[in-house]
Write a structure and sequence with these properties.
Number of helices: 11
Largest sheet: 10 strands, mixed
Low-confidence stretches: none
Strand order of the largest sheet: 21-20-24-18-17-14-1-19-23-22
Helix content: 25-40%
Strand content: 25-35%
Mean pLDDT: 97
């Protein structure tokens, strides 16, 4: 058994975790809305058509913010089509996913759903095929109290009080040629600057997210960040990052090393933000919104077939990845990476929430189930709120095909001072050997192990389904405490949650 040592001292706080780091995403894509969160006539649907079995699992995850309505969908989103009496709304062709959008579920319905889910709304505006004027009209509709054209229109539609949406995305992936209304750096810099300026004049309380690169491998990364922030820096609060990972090569060891790339992505974007800050002699600090992240690769052939050969369906089965155990480990590694950078990553959205590359899956006629990736997210959301502690980790290395030598163990510690609780999240990404991990809790006198939770499987490709849950957390009773030293075993290829609390 290999040896890993960790030292944790509460004096070395990195940052408080912004709860919005446990956000998620609902796009008008596939069965995320129709057949996902919204299915009138289903036995579990309430009077609004919202599936209660889905809402129950969303509440279990304690998702504080949900991004809406896209995603690529937003770049041809005409918000006016999605409000008002449902019988007066007209269907529209969604060109992003070549689907038919019936508009029977729209902005007002989503705000109501988010309230039932206990989540705030993170709204995106269309800067692809529309622009500043329409973004301001939407903001007026959502947030202005009354007495204007669009605020009174909201009231006419039955919402007397403003929605008070605080977070707004200035478009989506505008650097991508696949995006309707794709912009170059200068074009997006200017339209985002003018739109942000106008929206902040209308409602100074809102926070704005500028579009960063669509992913780290874009040819214009990181020049895109530098050029666009050079325009809009004074008006925006965050810049977005998007990243998905997959194991197309079926190289599991290297797949589990991809979180190291995510780490480098964050470092680079932070460096660019601080370069622009220095260039502008600004006192303002731009933070990061990692508002799309997940594993995504299982369903891409089906997606291509449906969009090319079977277009213009309502709620087609797009991006329905069925996740396996190793996917859950990668999601856990990505969560750890986000938490380690809590000083700059303030918002993050697991993309997405239901059916579409999601932790929650539904059966059209039947029930709902938790995918393998549900559990790391659940644990992080439940126990990862507090202050991230800088730890000293001494762990062996193993070789990978694409990343060279990487650490066996990746971990982070979160301290909830008001509850007198400490949680260590750790992934042993060595596929061959267990780790004996000792943790020196030198500044946590009187603390004892509350529990150790682990996600393990002998089969990296094991999946959950409506009928069988092959991957689920279990409690490990072998963890022990000797004075201020905790001793645990991290099984090979495992997700681990070790919780400590102050003894009586």
């Amino acid at each position: 058994m290999r040896e890993t040592k960790m030292t944790i001292d509460k004096a070395y706080k990195v940052s408080q975790v912004d709860p919005r780091i446990f956000g998620s995403f609902i796009e008008h894509l596939g069965r995320a809305v129709y057949g996902g969160i919204y299915q009138p006539g289903h036995p579990c649907a309430d009077r609004d058509g919202f599936r209660q079995d889905v809402l129950e699992l969303v509440r279990e995850l304690h998702v504080p913010v949900v991004r809406y309505p896209g995603g690529n969908y937003v770049s041809n989103f005409f918000w006016e089509d999605s409000v008002g009496p449902v019988h007066e709304r007209r269907p529209r062709l969604d060109l992003a996913w070549r689907s038919l959008e019936p508009n029977t579920f729209g902005l007002g319905e989503f705000v109501k759903w988010a309230e039932k889910a206990g989540s705030d709304v993170m709204m995106a505006v269309n800067l692809g095929t529309r622009g500043t004027k329409d973004a301001c009209n939407l903001l007026e509709y959502c947030n202005h109290p009354s007495g204007t054209r669009y605020s009174d229109l909201r009231r006419k539609h039955g919402a007397e009080e403003p929605y008070h949406i605080k977070l707004w995305c200035l478009g989506n992936e505008m650097d991508g040629e696949w995006q309707l209304g794709h912009k170059n750096m200068q074009e997006y810099g200017r339209i985002s600057e003018e739109t942000a300026k106008a929206m902040k004049l209308m409602d100074p309380s809102i926070e704005l997210v500028s579009c960063g690169s669509s992913f780290m491998g874009m040819p214009t990364f990181p020049q895109w960040e530098a050029a666009t922030l050079d325009c809009n820096y004074d008006y925006v609060d965050y810049i977005s990052l998007h990243q998905y990972y997959g194991n197309e090569a079926q190289d599991s060891a290297d797949f589990l090393a991809l979180s190291d790339d995510m780490e480098e992505f964050i470092h680079t974007v932070v460096s660019v933000c601080d370069f622009v800050k220095a260039k502008k002699r600004s006192k303002k600090r731009i933070h990061l919104s990692f508002d799309e992240w997940n594993v995504w690769y299982h369903s891409k052939d089906e997606e291509m077939d449906i969009t090319k050969n079977h277009p213009w369906q309502v709620g087609p089965r797009l991006l329905e990845d069925h996740y396996n155990f190793e996917d859950a480990l990668v999601v856990g590694l990505m969560l750890i990476t986000l938490l380690k950078h809590a000083d700059r990553v303030k918002i993050a959205c697991l993309a997405q929430l239901v059916n579409v590359i999601a932790p929650i899956m539904t059966d059209a006629e039947g029930g709902v189930w938790r995918q393998t990736i549900f559990y790391p997210f659940l644990h992080a959301s439940a126990y990862g709120r507090g202050a991230v502690i800088e730890t000293i980790l001494d762990t062996p290395l193993h070789e990978t095909s694409g990343h060279g030598a990487v650490t066996d163990v990746v971990s982070v510690a979160v301290y909830q001072e008001e509850k007198e609780e400490l949680t260590v999240f750790a992934v042993n990404r060595n596929l061959e050997e267990d780790q004996h991990m000792s943790m020196d809790l030198r500044s946590f006198e009187g603390y004892e192990i509350l529990e150790k939770i682990e996600l393990v499987s002998e089969d990296l490709k094991a999946e959950n389904s409506l009928y069988e849950e092959k991957v689920a957390p279990v409690r490990d009773a072998a963890a022990r405490m000797d004075g201020q030293i905790a001793e645990v075993v991290l099984k090979k290829a495992s997700w681990n949650v070790i919780r400590f609390g102050k003894g009586k």
